[in-house]
Each structure stands twice: as C-alpha cells, then as structure tokens.
C-alpha cells in the first residue's frame, strides 16, 4: 500500500525524496492537490481548472439566445459584410459568420483563443518558482538539505513538480479572468484583440440585452452596429494573416521580461493549492479570491513593449470605428446614441479587464483612444484608403506611439520608404508575403509576416446607398467621414 498522500497504483507517483520535501512544505493537503493537478495534464496552465472556474463565474444569469436574437444576428452580419465591402478594410478570406452565443459558449471558445496571451506569462511564473526553490534549498551545487533530508540529485524532479503548482495558480487566475470577461464583453473583439477564433464574430446575447436595456433603442439597429464592429475587426485579424501572430509576439516579448516576487508567488500558490478542489464551487471561489491578490508590475523595458502593443490596438479600434461610422451613419438613425453607449463602456475598466491586466501584468486598453481617431482621419485625408491599408502592409509599417500622436511623422516615414504602393490591392495579395519596407523601424521583437489577405479594391466614389441593401461607395456621415457621430444622449 502506498504511504498516505503518495497516491495509489493508478495515481501519479511522486519520487520518494521529493514526496518527503512536499510533505514538509505543505502537508498532506498540498500533496493531494498536487497529485490532482498532475493528473490534469501538462503545460504551464491547468486549462481544465481554468474552464471549470470560468464556467462557474459565467453561469449565474446566463442563457442561450432566443430565436429573435439569433435571427437579428444573422441578418446583421449579412448587412455588415455587405456594407463593409465598400470600406478601406482588407477583404476577408471567406464569408463572415456571427455566432449569437451564451456566455458559456464564448468561454469554451476563449479558452483556446486566449491561450497565446496567458501561457508566456505562466511560464515566467514557473521559472520564478523554480529559482526560488533553488535559492532557498540549495546548499551547494545540486545538493539539497532540508531538516536533515538529503535530496541528492532530486532537483530535476522537483522542477518537474513545481510546474503543476504554477499551472494551478495560473489556471485559477485565467479562469477568473475569462469568467469575468464573459459577463462583460458584447463580442469577441471588444478588447481590440481576438479572444476566440478570429474567423468568427460573436455577440453575447445576454450581455447585449442587459447593456442596452432601458435606452429605448431599436434592437435591430443595435445588432447591426455590434456586427459592424465585430466584422471590421474580423477583417483586420482574419484577412491580415500576420497580425494576430504579431500581437501574440509582443505579449511573448513582454512576458520574457517579467520579474516576479517569487516568495510572494510561492505563498499565493501554496494557498491556492491547499484550497482548490475542482469539484467544489465554494473552494473554487475561495481559490480565485486568493489568486486575484497576485499582481504583476511591468518593468521599464516591458512598458516600452506595452506602448507598442497598445498602439496597435488603438489603431485597429479607431480604424474599425471609422468604418462603422462611414457605413452606418446615413443608414441607422440611432447610430450616434448606440456609439455613445459603447464609448462609455470603453471608458470604464470592467472587472474582467482589470483582472486580465493583473494576470498578464499589462493593460491592453489604450490610454487615449482619441489619438487613434485623429491618426485614422489624418491618414485617410492625406493618402486615402491606400494609406490606411499601408499601416497593415507589414509589421514595421505599424505606427508607434509618437506617430499615432503626430501622424505627419508616420506619413513622412512611409513616404521616405515608399512603403505604400500605388496599387493598394497589392498590399493584401493572397499568397504573397508583405514586403519589407525600406523605411521600416526594425524595432525588434517577433514580427511574423506570412502573407496577406485577398485583394480588396478601393471603394468606388459615389453617394450614400439606401438603407438596408447598401450599395458600394464611401458614405459621408454628418460632419464628414472622419468626424464624430452626430449628437445624441443615450440616456433612457
């Protein structure tokens, strides 16, 4: 019979010396939870624990979409794709699809979509735990001694066993983030990055209903505006094949520079390990509260990476807003009121956003979104649709923070490097890698560029199409295409 806490024949086995070490560090309860996490799969994040935690938070008040919501969504995305065919956005590789979903449906999709953001930071957690144990327990070389316990060469086994401990902490944190986001987001691109498969747009039905309740707005107009925003971002991330990888590369660069208070991390991790039981919702809530107390603070070098990441998101969100206004201002009477509701939501950090910033150590939300709006308007006035597309011709074409604030600097850099071709459709020629611009900054960091999207011609000039089956052409809203939406108070 296996000693108490060591596991039976069908359970993961701990090497004898390491078993004794963990027994001294945390007792039988810690060992029991460690065995459970070892059985939960490898990797830097315990995603099964994250899934359980997220679904636990998403469940209260959740519901599937009703038939009317699903029908509105299907019609909304059809109109959105048709209207945006006249925009400066790149054409998608395939027909758009919008999933009107419950919170829990989005949770299951987001577990895969957010993995590239969470796992680099999780690996930094595991490294910090390993370094702490080495510092505290190593007497000389790889010889460890703890209260007369000679662990000899077991350090390699110990490092292997620390990984599931870090995976528990990050799994609980990731689950809390995803669960809170499921209660906050209206669509998958609300954060400015894909949170699920970038080929699919989402509307979280219960969140949309709750967010617009009491404003007296036409639910069909609301559905169309939200579909336009989702579809615009879908075109950016799904049509420009390197863009999502570039964003994930910046996050990985950020994570590589992470410095962690390892002693505090160990304290929090041991507390979570002692409390969490994936089968017990109450223990999950207690573990999530403890995990939420651990926050990463960026270093100066990381702040420079963060500045670049926020700049990309600021540009993409502003470009999407620009195209939504252009497509809908003459077609949807309540666009201004709907956009004001959305602006107020963006101005506030929800619980999910705050916890995501705590988990990653970075805040994805741009500090000043108006700089992106000014950049898009200035570039469009100076260079037209080709100018905006030029920003996504290559990772090095993306504007930095100073260029977002002063678009003339970006325009001068692009002109000097001749990075914007006369034929803008060449920027998104399927099967061809984007050119390396002579005027690029070469700032370093991962910049994968494996080809672009399908050709997307300039919109033909013309007047505003009739509402409904909108035609091609630029649409001038009140105050001009780049200006703010017409006034209006969304108050009920």
Give the topology.
Blueprint: H1 16-39, H2 47-58, H3 67-84, E1 97-101, H4 103-113, H5 115-137, E2 138-140, E3 143-146, E4 149-150, H6 155-182, E5 200-204, H7 205-211, H8 219-239, H9 243-256, H10 262-275, H11 281-291, H12 300-328, H13 335-346, H14 351-360, H15 369-383, H16 385-390, H17 401-405, H18 407-417
Parallel strand pairs: 1-5
Antiparallel strand pairs: 2-3, 3-4
Helix pairs in contact: 1-6, 2-4, 2-6, 3-8, 5-6, 5-9, 5-10, 6-10, 6-11, 6-14, 8-12, 9-12, 10-11, 12-15
Mean pLDDT: 75
Largest sheet: 3 strands, antiparallel
β-strand number: 5
Shape estimate: globular
In DSSP terms (H or I, runs of 4 or more residues), the helix count works out at: 18
Proportion in β-strands? under 5%
What pattern of helices and strands is seen along the backbone?
HHHEHHEEEHEHHHHHHHHHHHH
Low-confidence stretches: 1-19, 139-155, 419-492
Task: Summarize the amount of helix as a percent range.
Answer: 55-70%
């Amino acid at each position: 019979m296996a000693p108490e806490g060591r596991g039976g024949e069908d359970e993961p086995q701990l090497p004898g010396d390491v078993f004794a070490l963990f027994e001294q560090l945390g007792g039988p309860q810690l060992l029991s939870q460690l065995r459970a996490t070892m059985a939960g799969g490898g990797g830097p994040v315990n995603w099964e624990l994250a899934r359980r935690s997220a679904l636990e938070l998403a469940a209260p008040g959740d519901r599937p979409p009703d038939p009317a919501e699903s029908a509105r969504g299907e019609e909304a995305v059809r109109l959105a794709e048709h209207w945006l065919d006249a925009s400066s956005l790149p054409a998608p590789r395939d027909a758009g699809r919008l999933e009107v979903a419950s919170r829990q449906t989005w949770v299951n999709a987001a577990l895969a979509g957010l993995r590239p953001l969470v796992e680099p930071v999780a690996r930094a957690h595991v490294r910090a735990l390993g370094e702490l144990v080495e510092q505290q327990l190593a007497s000389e070389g790889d010889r460890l001694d703890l209260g007369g316990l000679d662990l000899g060469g077991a350090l390699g086994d110990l490092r292997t066993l620390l990984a599931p401990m870090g995976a528990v902490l990050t799994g609980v944190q990731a689950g809390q983030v995803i669960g809170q986001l499921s209660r906050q987001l209206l669509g998958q691109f609300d954060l400015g990055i894909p949170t699920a498969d970038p080929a699919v747009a989402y509307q979280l039905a219960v969140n949309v209903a709750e967010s617009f309740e009491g404003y007296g707005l036409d639910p069909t107009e609301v559905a169309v505006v939200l579909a336009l925003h989702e579809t615009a971002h879908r075109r950016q991330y799904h049509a420009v094949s390197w863009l999502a990888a570039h964003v994930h590369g910046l996050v990985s660069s950020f994570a590589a520079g992470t410095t962690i208070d390892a002693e505090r991390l160990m304290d929090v991790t041991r507390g979570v390990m002692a409390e969490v039981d994936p089968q017990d919702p109450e223990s999950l809530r207690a573990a999530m509260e403890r995990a939420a107390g651990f926050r990463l603070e960026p270093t100066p070098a990381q702040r420079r990476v963060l500045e670049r990441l926020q700049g990309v998101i600021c540009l993409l969100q502003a470009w999407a807003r620009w195209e939504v206004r252009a497509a809908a201002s003459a077609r949807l009477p309540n666009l201004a009121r709907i956009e004001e509701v959305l602006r107020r939501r963006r101005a506030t950090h929800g619980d999910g956003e705050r916890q995501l910033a705590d988990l990653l150590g970075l805040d994805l939300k741009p500090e000043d979104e108006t700089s992106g709006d000014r950049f898009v308007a200035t570039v469009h006035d100076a260079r037209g649709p080709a100018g905006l597309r030029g920003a996504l011709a290559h990772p090095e074409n993306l504007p930095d923070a100073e260029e977002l604030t002063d678009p003339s600097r970006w325009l001068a850099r692009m002109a000097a490097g001749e990075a914007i071709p006369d034929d803008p459709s060449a920027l998104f020629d399927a099967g061809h890698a984007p050119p390396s611009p002579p005027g690029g900054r070469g700032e370093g960091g991962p910049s994968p560029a494996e080809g672009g999207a399908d050709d997307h011609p300039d919109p033909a000039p013309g007047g505003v199409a009739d509402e409904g089956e909108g035609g091609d052409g630029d649409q001038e809203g009140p105050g001009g295409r780049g200006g703010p939406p017409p006034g209006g108070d969304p108050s009920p």
